[in-house]
Amino acid sequence: MKKKLISLLLVSAMAVSLAACGGRGEDDPVANDQGSTPAQSDNSQSGDDGDETPAADENASYTYHEAIGEFPTNWSPALEQTSADGDLMSFLTAGLYGFDYNDDMDGYEIIPLAATGEPIDVTADYVGQWGIEAGDFARVWSIPLREDVKWDDGTPITAQDYVRSAQLLLDPAAKNFHADMFYASSLKIVNAKNYLYGGQHVYVTPMISEGHLDEEYVPVDSFEVDEDGLLTVDGKDMVLDLGAGANWGASLADYYSEGMYVNADDVDVYAEFILPNVNANGYVPVTQEVYDAVCLCIAQYHDFADADAYAAAVGDYAYLEAQEMMIYGQTYDPIDFSEVGFAAPSDYELVIALDHPLEGAYLLYALGNPWLLKEDLYLSCEKVENGVYTNTYGTSAETSASFGPYKLVSFQKDEEYVLERNEYYFDLYGKFQTTRYVVKCVAEPATRLQMFLNGELDIYGLSSEDMDAYATSDYTYYVTGASTFFVAMNPDFDALTARQAALGDNFNKTVLTIREFRQALSYSLDRASFALAAAPTNSPAFGVYSNLIIYDPEAGAAYRNTDEAKQVLVDFWGLADNIGDDKLYADMDEAIDSITGYNLEMAKEKFAEAYDIAVEQGLIDDDDVVQLTIGLPSTSDFYTKGNDFLVNGWTEAVVGTPFEGRLTFVLNDTLGNGFGEALRNNEVDILFGVGFSGSALDPYNLIQFYTTDPILRYNVCWDTDNDMLTINLNGKDWTASVADWTYTISGEKITITDADGGSQEFSAGATDGNAQERFEILAALEGAVLERYEMLPLMNDASARLKSLKVNYATEDYIFGMGFGGLEYYTYNYTDDEWAAFVAEQGGTLLDLLLNRN
Fold first, then answer.
1. DSSP of 260-309
2. Rounded to an integer, what distance in angstroms lies between the CA atom of residue 47 and that of residue 474?
3. Do residues 796 and 484 lie in contact, with contact meaning Cβ atoms separated by under 8 Å?
4. Contact of 826 with 458, CB cutoff 8 Å
5. What is the dihedral of CA 538, 542, 543, 544, to 10 degrees?
6. Partner of 320 for a Cys bridge, out of 217, 590, 631, 777, CB 3.0 to 4.6 A?
7. In DSSP terms, which residues pair with 796 in a beta bridge?
8. Long-range residue pairs from 614-623, CB within 8 A, at least 24 positions apart, any chain
9. Tens digit of pLDDT for each residue in 478-537?
10. Residue 135 region by backbone torsions, left for phi larger than 0, else alpha for psi between -120 and 50, else beta
């Protein structure tokens, strides 16, 4: 069975990205990207004002000021939930390991922070304990700890504090929000879940994990029925997770409207069997009727009449997919905490035991999440009233403790909080010039902008409305995110033929199936102008993957910076023959810098070529009008302006071609969150500003959402099981289907054939020992996606910020995991007193300087 490997990655629309581009308020800097440590949290933009940074005065005050729209409420490692909570917590804590710049400061490396070195695999020393068996590896790790880690009152921190904090976090009575960090993440600690849920019947284990492993799916004829009529597996009951969808990737409730899921007897099965049985947790106990109802709902979601019709297309998976929405019930026996996989053999050695092997960068990454709690303070904050446990740890300056680079000295709810440098932090030396960090709660962007212009703030996040004034400022800086947004098409010939017929005579849609027509749409797309018109903070995109997609987490190496990835771009954009000595471009970098994606002359040639092909294939008549429907996920400013730009641009591009006056567009702006399904079902012909978010550290997993995923892929018309792709590996050409190449870089064995008809089994998974071949396959798959011209790269995810003249940053470029250095690396051109005097000299406003008028 070939299924999606994860459900964490989400279909995304540009509307979501724009709304979320400031997690700590609209001028929130890109902070703690993918879990960066407090020292590396990025709170502003990079920039060099051209002057050398003055030497720091050790006795001076250097304050960094920021304003955010949403204030934190609980920054305890046990309970923090919002991005504002996490940002404050990050300055008060430190992971065992964390991100730092590499030696060249053009990437990251993961280094020990509260640890003194790499974890040591001691699995063999614990055979017989924690379920460890002879031959196991990478399951028990010894972590050497620093001896100078202290709380902000000088209290030393030892290995036993880590163990005791884990016990407090897993306290069954507390039901801490982040207790799942020890069993629901990659850091699955032995018996952590068993201790947390001891003596309780709970629903916490999805039937199907994020990996969607074949062996997890249960044949429907093996279900048993208990005395209450509930389906069980090995004595465990099940619930439908109606609220979150477990690991299906979405909630079924999000796709329901009255009368939507109706069976052959005209019964709305969702309303009849599912909705009446949902409990307060969003769970529905699974009976046979509920299970069958979910199967029908899923089948109709995929545009089939029922599960049997769906099975005719995909096989037994039609009856098993429902399990991805379900969670097992289980009663846990009480256990002692000594059975949980934590130990402190000495004051400065921490041992952890894992359910499954985990090593390398992913182990270090997991150990970057802090869980230390100051026990005496934490216990003083807990209270039980009427059987209800509460804890106020991390809700005020008085209930907060720090072992990170800063300490909280004051907190006024929804007004202001102040951090000062923690003199007990173990890694202050030569870093953290910022002595104070002051954060105010200011809801209105206009107010924040005025504060910035008055020199009262050191960062302001620009909105599209600000860009006319500040786009060319020397103090405006841009950040590219990990996501790429596309113009997406799904030119299924049969579906387009049916929709074309429904329009009546003299209408055409099938021309969209001609590759040359889609090429013309791409060449006539001025991406830079589109961004300027619709999303001024964003930058044009020319490939599937952005500059922030990391292919080697160990080295922090970006995919886009490799020769193989660069070759994909120069090949796709037709520049490969123009690179080299005495040619137009000296090297690939110079060629890539020249790419605009816009070539109106080429576009017109391709439109004419496409028309000739359409005539030759009998797809179009002389009086036919091409009508394409553009779908919008919302009527936001971005989509309204973007639609106008595309329609006007493509209408002008066909002038002088056979399509002049015959290419028309209609708008469907009612799609909402169903935009992806609307394209997959060919209810619309074109989407734009859509893509995927997630998997920034795993492009090998991400590629499936462009090639094989049956649920989330936009262009499901592409038959990747039968589209063959030839890739040169070690000097020899090998051929397999696009789908098989995708599966093999996830570890599946496939058969590849050579030009002479010879074949062999092949696998290029993460543990197969052929990393270079695996990477070359990934690059070839990106090229194959681009060459379809069904997913046209449009824009990178990006934001823009105004930076203060007061501050210097570590790097000009945004570095994954590090941002621009964060408070650890910020330096200052002015002390607080000097800055106040400088602003006064400018008449109390920095507007002229920011607009380059001085």
1. -SB-TTS-BHIIIIIGGG--TTSEEE--HHHHHHHHHHHHHHTT-SSHHH
2. 9
3. yes
4. no
5. 40
6. 217
7. 484, 539
8. 614/508, 614/510, 614/511, 614/514, 614/517, 617/514, 619/508, 619/510, 619/511, 619/513, 619/514, 620/508, 620/510, 620/511, 621/506, 623/506
9. 777 889 999 999 999 999 999 999 999 999 999 999 999 999 999 999 999 999 899 988
10. left
From the list 38, 8, 40, 404, the residue with the least C-alpha distance to 185 is: 8
Please, are residues 845 and 453 in contact by the beta-carbon 8 Å criterion?
yes
CA of 411: how far to CAs of 73, 408, 447, 475, in Å? 10, 7, 21, 31
- What is the C-alpha end-to-end distance of the chain, expressed in Å? 65
Residue 632 buriedness (CB in 10 A; 0-12 / 13-18 / 19+):
buried
- Taking alpha carbons only, the member of 413, 408, 457 closest to residue 26 is 457
Residues 6+ apart with CB under 8 A from 497: 509, 510
Q: List Cα–Cα distances, 185 to 175, 196, 389, 507, in angstroms.
A: 17, 15, 25, 53
CA pair distance 322, 345, nearest whole angstrom: 46
User: Dihedral of the CA atoms 829, 835, 837, 840 (nearest 10)?
Assistant: 120
- Contacts of residue 568, Cβ cutoff 8 Å, sequence gap at least 6: 543, 779, 782, 783, 786
CA angle in degrees (0–180, nearest 5) for 10-14-19: 95
pLDDT at 679 over 90: yes
Q: Which residues partner with 803 through β-bridges?
A: 459
pLDDT at 49: 38
CA distances from 119 to 148, 314, 364 (A): 18, 45, 8
Q: 3-state class of 593 per DSSP?
A: helix
CB 688 within 8 A of CB 646: yes
Could you give the angle at which helices 307-314 and 288-301 cross, rounded to 10 degrees? 60
pLDDT of residue 450: 97
CA dihedral 369, 371, 374, 379 (to 10 degrees): 150
Structure tokens given for 690: 């859509």
Record the pTM. Answer: 0.75
Neighbour-count burial for 305-331, b at 16+ CB within 10 Å, e otherwise = eebeebbeebeeebbbbbbbbbbbbbe
Rounded Cα distance, 612 and 520, in Å: 13
464-484 burial, b if ≥16 CB within 10 A, otherwise e?
Answer: bebbeebeebebbbbbbbbbb
DSSP code string of 345-406? EETTEEEEEBSS---HHHHHHHTTS-----HHHHHHTEEEETTEEEE-TTSSSTT----SSE
DSSP string, 194-243: HHHTBT-EEEEEESS-TT--GGGPPPGGG-EE-TTS-EEETTEEEEEETT
Dihedral (CA of 189, 192, 194, 195) sign: positive
Among 620, 611, 405, 342, which Cα is nearest to 507's?
A: 620
Give the residue ranges of DSSP H helices in 41-103.
83-92
Mention every residue, 6+ apart, whose C-beta is less than 8 A from residue 723: 737, 738, 739, 784
Residues 37 and 825: beta-carbon distance below 8 Å:
no
SS3 693: strand
Q: From its phi and psi, is residue 722 left (phi > 0), alpha (psi between -120 and 50) or beta?
A: alpha
Angle (deg, nearest 10), helices 771-787 and 563-572:
20
Structure tokens at 557: 């190496």
For 251-294, the pLDDT digits (tens) are 788 777 666 788 888 889 999 999 999 998 899 999 999 999 99
Q: What is the DSSP letter of 771?
A: H
* Of 8, 1, 6, 9, residue with least CA distance to 318: 1
Number of continuous H segments (helices) and E segments (strands) in the chain = 27, 35
Give the amino acid at 328. Y
Question: What are the angstrom distances between the C-alpha of 181 and each of 82, 178, 193, 850?
Answer: 16, 6, 10, 44
Listed in sequence order, the DSSP H helices in 466-526 are 467-470, 493-503, 515-523
